[in-house]
Design goal:
By secondary structure, the chain is an all-alpha fold. It is built from nine helices and no strands. The chain starts with 6 loop residues before the first helix and ends in a 14-residue tail after the last helix.
């Protein structure tokens, strides 16, 4: 994979605005929950850059390997709380909004777990990570190094 362009070099002003706007978009939500949301959206969007970054960040927040691995099958995995499940379902729906929409029943589930302000923050975070996924996928970005290893 070869990076198409570095958006921070090509358009530093707008990229700084985007970075600043998304840096603290959900100040009252748990960091661990936000990392799960970022990983889940990045899984759906196939964004290797963001998966690499946010799985590392989740580990730093104390997230277990098991829960990170099971995130792609969160519907069936018993290790997520009702609050996390609501956030993940909302992430799935809004990431796949063209086909999934945002059904009333799902919104009610989210409303049971999150205050009005938290629902706005969660929705903004989902919007932000989807934007970052599109930047990274569109420009073939991969920040950070991951050593290549051959299969055993």
């Amino acid at each position: 994979m070869t990076t198409r362009l570095d958006p921070f070099k090509a358009a530093p002003g707008p990229m700084k605005l985007w970075l600043d706007a998304t840096a603290n978009i959900a100040p009252t939500l748990e960091k661990s929950l936000l990392e799960l949301v970022k990983i889940r959206a990045s899984q759906i969007n196939g964004c290797a850059n963001c998966l690499n970054m946010h799985t590392a960040d989740a580990r730093k927040e104390g997230e277990s390997e098991q829960r990170i691995y099971l995130l792609s099958a969160w519907h069936e995995a018993p290790c997520f709380t009702p609050r996390e499940r609501a956030a993940l379902a909302w992430t799935d729906a809004l990431t796949l909004v063209a086909t999934a929409r945002a059904p009333d029943a799902l919104y009610a589930e989210v409303a049971e777990q999150f205050s009005e302000a938290e629902r706005v923050e969660l929705t903004l975070m989902i919007n932000a990570i989807n934007g970052w996924n599109r930047i990274a996928v569109g420009f073939d970005l991969f920040y950070g190094t991951v050593p290549a290893r051959a299969a055993a």
